[in-house]
Amino acid sequence: MNEISWLAVPTKDNAHEGVRKLWGKAEANLGFVPNVFRAQALNGEQFLAWWNYFNLLVNKPGHLSNVEREMLAVVVSGLNRCVYCAVSHGAALREYGMEAGKADKVAVNWRHAALSGREAALCAFAEKLTLHPAGMAQSDLTPLRDAGLDDAQILEAVQVIGMFNMTNRVSSALGFVPNAEYHSQGR
């Protein structure tokens, strides 16, 4: 075991070329390489395929705001008790403008945060889809629509929630450790 994962972690010398390029971009943009980029790089092609979809859902302009997408990530990660994702996306949520105290409440129990009706509807939907996916019904979309979300926004919310449920399981199953830098970001 190494300090960021329970599996082997490639080095710059033996990582896939595309992964090394991504590490370089992250270092240039963030000032560090996220541990998740290193920990998943063992299977380079699979990691890059995951990254392309993740990046599209979370980092590119979409139908939801950056705050909404990161809020969903934090709610799902908190419910799944995924330390890596709760910490790293809690940092992103603060960086995108949610006040630190409110973001911390979202991470632990979103019901204690002073959320708008739209934010609360998204969080409630994320909670049900994460904890009770077999119980989802068409009527679960009504509070989202009542809060002003259209079908494209609802679909994106479902995709983000699904992505984080999958990513949480990978991170938790392999013991991914968040970078120390995340703890102070946005504070």
UniProtKB/TrEMBL annotation:
Residues 46-127 form the Carboxymuconolactone decarboxylase-like domain. One of its GO terms (molecular function) is peroxiredoxin activity. InterPro entries: AhpD-like, AhpD_core, CMD-like, Uncharacterised_peroxidase-rel. Coiled coil: none annotated. Pfam families: CMD. Keywords: Oxidoreductase, Peroxidase. PANTHER family: CARBOXYMUCONOLACTONE DECARBOXYLASE-LIKE DOMAIN-CONTAINING PROTEIN (PTHR35446:SF2), SI:CH211-175M2.5 (PTHR35446). This is Peroxidase-related enzyme.
